[in-house]
Amino acid sequence: MDFTSLTVDTPASAWTGRNDGDGPAHRRWWQAVATPPSGPSGAAASASSAAPAALLGFRSDEGVRRNAGRVGAAAAPAAIRAALGSLAFHGSRAVTDVGDVVVAGDALEEGQARAGRALTAMLDAGQLTFVLGGGHETAFASYLGVAGTAAVANGARLGVLNLDAHFDLRDAPAPTSGTPFLQMARAEAAAGRELNYAVVGISEPNNTRVLFDTAHELDVKYLLDEDCSAERTAAFVSSFLETVDIVYLTIDLDVLPASVAPGVSAPAAYGVPLPVIAAVCRQLAASGKLFHFDVAELNPEFDIDNRTAKVAARLIDTLLR
Q: In which residue ranges of the chain is pLDDT below 50?
């Protein structure tokens, strides 16, 4: 597939950072990530047995705007790349950056479809894909990519694990950053399947009764933020993993306390501690079932000392080890 027809602004110049040397032991992310103009191919794999990874940016504010949130998430992919750049690269898998899908104006649905096609092609080529959002409308773009794969067509049991203070199950006239998981449920039903959806970090005061009712109707598994001890969260995720063959993990950064992740559309008054969220990432990575992941809702305009972007970068680094 020609990825240049699906993405724009392949950001070779976006990858910069501290230079301690050119040898493998000196490598940082900016030195490790490849940015070929036509995107990744199966030949991009390193000597490692781990599947090569492919990064796609999703520059979108439209879902947040429609959801009456604080816009600015379209700048997030660049901010996360900047935060990743100087991190030491301890992984062994090849990582390729294929650039960004840009949502122009209000053309959210078209942008989601383009991102989905790109992701499906990369996943079917054996890549572990991840997306840098964007508002949480990023999630439906990710779902389109995952649901279109040969793995799902051949019967793999897909599970969607969301680390989030919100269900994002709103029923709205048009898709927003608050609707993606209801959209997924309806798409799965249309395909003759049921959405296997679980959420870690739900804030009860920030989800209306109708959202809880919808979650119960769809048999959504969830853990409230106040119940997210390390032990309970690990057991919850372990139980979920037993029901799936492949996992799409989505991280809405507003799952974290506002002191840790201030740069989001809806900062959390309570939130789930970062060590618990990082442990979930390690658990998913170790399971062998991680198929695709994304990070959403970073808003650099409201970040403090790039704190939220640095947290996003750390979690991505953890997932790719």
A: 1-2, 4-5, 38-47
